[in-house]
Design a protein that fits this description.
Elements (H helix, E strand, L loop, with lengths): L1 E5 L2 E5 L7 H8 L18 E4 L2 E4 L5 H4 L3 E3 L1 H4 L3 H13 L8 H14 L6 H7 L10 H15 L5
Parallel strand pairs: 1-5
Antiparallel strand pairs: 1-2, 3-4, 3-5
Helix pairs in contact: 4-5, 4-7, 5-7, 6-7
Keywords: 2Fe-2S, Iron, Iron-sulfur, Metal-binding, Oxidoreductase
InterPro entries: 2Fe-2S-bd, 2Fe-2S-bd_dom_sf, 2Fe-2S_ferredoxin-like_sf, 2Fe-2S_ferredoxin-type, 2Fe2S_fd_BS, Beta-grasp_dom_sf, Diverse_Oxidoreductases
Organism: Limnohabitans planktonicus II-D5
Length: 157
């Protein structure tokens, strides 16, 4: 049994230590917001937070996550940051097919939690560059991140 803390709850899973965390999250814990995109940690669809840091869960073995705090997009959406991002996504009409959105949201949450100033569009696009959107809604995503950042800082979005 491997013990994890997922979205604030202690869980135990019976799986091989080399099993990618993505499959534990999706298949053992039934948290299907985290997506499988490429399987080689390049696209970002599988991004989750491990002890507060974005990681690609498709390439992270379960053994590397044992005893650590994991936040998925489902957990993020219960936070003020997640709610501000969700509102930003709706306002900017960012989702198209929606497949990359959970990874985009997880990366955006880290970006706006670290940076205390309003980022320019270029800075947002650069910070988010590790996540691929096949629909090409990068400008809408940048607008959504900007909106969320301003909302969280108490300013007009």
């Amino acid at each position: 049994m491997v013990r994890l803390k997922v979205n604030g709850e202690a869980v135990s899973v019976d799986a091989k230590p080399e099993t990618p965390l993505l499959w534990i999250i999706r298949e053992k814990l039934n948290l299907t917001g985290t997506k499988f995109g490429c399987g080689i940690a390049q696209c970002g669809a599988c991004t989750v937070h491990l002890n507060g840091q974005p990681v690609r869960s498709c390439a992270l073995p379960l053994s590397a996550a044992e005893g650590k705090d994991i936040t998925t997009v489902e957990g993020l959406m219960k936070t003020p940051t997640g709610q501000a991002l969700q509102a930003g996504w709706v306002k900017a009409q960012a989702p198209q097919c929606g497949y990359c959105q959970s990874g985009q949201l997880m990366t955006a949450a880290k970006v706006i939690s670290v940076v205390k100033k309003n980022l320019s569009r270029t800075e947002i696009l650069e910070a988010m560059s590790g996540n691929i959107c096949r629909c090409g809604t990068y400008n809408q995503i940048a607008s959504a991140v900007s909106h969320a950042q301003k909302t969280l800082q108490g300013g007009k979005a």
